[in-house]
Write a structure and sequence with these properties.
mainly beta; five-stranded antiparallel β-sheet; four-stranded antiparallel β-sheet; 1 helix; globular; Sialidase_sf; Sialidase
Length: about 375
């Protein structure tokens, strides 16, 4: 979070109960063709195994190092959640450690440091088999107390029985000291909602799940990410949550909501990008830059001759203005990685650059630079 925004959160936030926001869509922004977002030609691998690794996510540690977590796939449904590490601000990554390995549906890793050298990793951890393809769904949390070198089981943040599942954890620090974990929960095949659990003991125990977005619609919201910024209309802190949804279903488009109370309530739901009819845009993640503007990365088959989602998708990126009275202006997308590329992530490197991660024949990354006028 930019320092200029951090100090305002404590002064302006009133963390009071409220109802979830309406799912009604806000007046969409007019896309801009702004060319100030530069896609740098600096692709690098996130692993020494350059050809195996998917769903990469980045986290910054207290000493400035960056950890990349991703899923490695082996024979006979072997899955390994691996970690690589960068000590040069994301220029190079070296294989570093493993979180867990096993035969099962182990995927969607997300890591966060909760204290110096104390890191948590949340991931989906489902059992295969049975009538529905799964026999149990979990969002599992492991911890490392030595900077990510060794890992041990800590807790289950959420779990349930089939047939409907839970997926895609994302974690952030709340201003009240709680660790917020957000995930996607299926209530019906065409109804998926964004849920939140909170821990006040560094992941040992978690609150009951609470729906924070999507309760009043029949869309399939998912793949959530959150960035912290400022609303320039009143100079107050804001969170922006991005997700894929099925407003024009069954195909996916990208939307966002904004929170002014540290993620308790959300409003100003609006479209980020709607691909041409019959095409998809999904799996978004978001980062904020030093001026409060936003970068959203996602995968889309908007130019594919054959639509076979999730295949034939490229990784693209859009830039968003800082919120102003709940309104964000988004640019048209630019290509970061060509088809077929999958499951992007993003993290700010400094005030003007972000590192985009994705699978393209292995776990890769490329930087983008925002050059304001």
């Amino acid at each position: 979070m930019p320092n200029f925004a951090r100090k305002f959160f404590r002064d302006f936030l009133g963390l009071k109960p409220g109802r979830p926001s309406s799912p009604a869509i806000a007046t969409p922004s007019v896309p801009s063709t702004n060319t100030n977002l530069v896609i740098n030609q600096d692709e690098r691998s996130l692993s020494e195994d350059k050809f195996n690794g998917t769903y990469p996510r980045l986290t910054r540690l207290h000493d400035g190092a960056i950890l990349a977590v991703f899923t490695w796939r082996g024979p006979e449904q072997l899955r390994v959640l691996k970690i690589s590490k960068s000590t040069d601000n994301g220029q190079t990554f070296m294989d570093f450690a493993e979180i867990i390995r096993g035969q099962g549906e182990i995927d969607n890793p997300f890591a966060i440091e909760v204290a110096p050298n104390h890191i948590l990793a949340a991931f989906r951890n489902h059992d295969f088999g049975g009538e529905f393809g799964f026999t149990h769904f979990r969002i599992t949390v492991y911890e490392s107390r030595d900077g990510g070198q060794t890992w041990a089981y800590l807790s289950q943040a959420a779990e349930k029985s089939p047939p409907l599942g839970i997926w895609e954890p994302f974690m952030r620090h709340g201003l009240d000291g709680g660790l917020q974990l957000i995930y996607s929960h299926e209530f019906a095949p065409d109804d998926q909602r964004t849920m939140q659990v909170i821990s006040y003991d560094r992941g040992k125990t978690w609150s009951s799940p609470r729906c924070i977005e999507g309760a009043a619609d029949r869309f399939r919201d998912g793949m959530t990410g959150i960035a912290e910024t400022m609303d320039t209309a009143e100079n107050r802190p804001a969170l922006v949550l991005v997700f894929e949804t099925t407003r024009y279903g069954p195909h996916f488009n990208l939307e966002a909501v904004i929170s002014y109370d540290d993620g308790y309530t959300w409003s100003h739901r609006h479209e980020i990008y709607v691909p041409p009819p019959g095409h998809n845009a999904g799996a978004p993640q978001i980062a904020s830059l030093g001026d409060g503007s936003l970068v959203v990365v996602f995968m889309t088959d908007d130019q594919a001759e054959e639509v076979k989602w999730i295949h034939n998708a490229a990784i693209k990126v859009v830039h968003g203005s800082p919120p102003h009275g709940g309104r964000i202006n988004w640019t048209m997308p630019a290509v970061v990685s060509p088809a077929s590329s999958f499951w992007p992530g993003i993290m700010a490197l400094d005030s003007q650059r972000a590192l985009v991660t994705y699978e393209h024949g292995g776990p890769r990354a490329r930087s983008v630079t925002w050059k304001p006028n």
